[in-house]
Amino acid sequence: MIRLRIVCFLPTISFIINLNTVSCNLLSCFDFMIGKKLSTTPIKILSDIGLETCLNQCVDHTYCLSVNYNRHEFICQLINRKKNNNETLLDDWDYIHKELPDIGHQSEKMCGAIACNNYSTCLHTSTGRYVCIATVNGEWGPWENWSSCSKSCAGGQTSRKRECNSPYPMYGGALCIGSETETASCNTNPCSGGGFFGFGK
Fold it and tell me: Beta strand 21-23 with 14-18: parallel, antiparallel or unpaired?
């Protein structure tokens, strides 16, 4: 029997894997499914965060009941359900799957003594209070000015950018939809003196 010891990038968690057996040095880590993921469409994807933050995001999100966490790319997938008895988790060693314990349905998720509505996220304040904060979806700000054309003739490119900051997405809100950059053709007139053959700028 092969016994592997894998130390994750997360400084507080160490996994010892013996086939499908997992033991951790954190009490909350007992039901982590390493090398497994639930095949479903996530309700939200978060990038560049750690596993602990991923789980906290799931706890705070009104609909989240489990997560798929890509431990190599640090991508967190929030999922609005748990595995049912008629399906199995997929094998994928890039992932860790974790279900929220003791919660079977979204209606059971409490923020202190109350349940947040579908448009709110639960926040734990520094004073020990739990507060439902309304979700803020991101919206695009205005476009910046077009950049200078890349060529003076024979067809160049110009571009402009915008930011998802009007407002920024907050408290679990959705990111802006669409591209942050836009390109267009410019100075399409022919170059004089053989510009099409490389003499034009």
Answer: antiparallel
Tell me how far apart the terminal alpha carbons of the chain are, to the nearest angstrom: 68
Residue-wise pLDDT for 88-129, tens only, equals: 999 999 999 999 887 777 776 777 777 776 667 777 677 777
Strand partners, 96: 34, 69
Among candidates 74, 95, 116, which has minimal Cα distance to 15?
Answer: 95
Q: Which domain holds residue 165?
A: 136-144+154-171+183-201
Q: How far is residue 84's CA from residue 81's CA, in Å, rounded to a whole number? A: 9
Q: What angle do CA 65, 71, 72 make, to 5 degrees?
A: 145
CB atoms within 10 A of CB 59: 15
Task: Please state, in angstroms and rounded to a whole number, the distance separating the CA atoms of residues 98 and 33.
Answer: 6
Residues 89 and 159 in one domain: no
Among residues 46, 60, 49, 47, the alpha carbon closest in space to that of 100 is found at 60
**Which secondary-structure segment (H or E) carries 36?**
strand 33-37
8 plus 92 within the same structural domain: yes
Same domain, residue pair 95 and 165? no
d(CA 8, CA 112): 32
Please give the model's pTM, rounded to 2 decimal places. 0.48
Query: Cβ atoms within 10 A of the Cβ of 171, count?
Result: 17
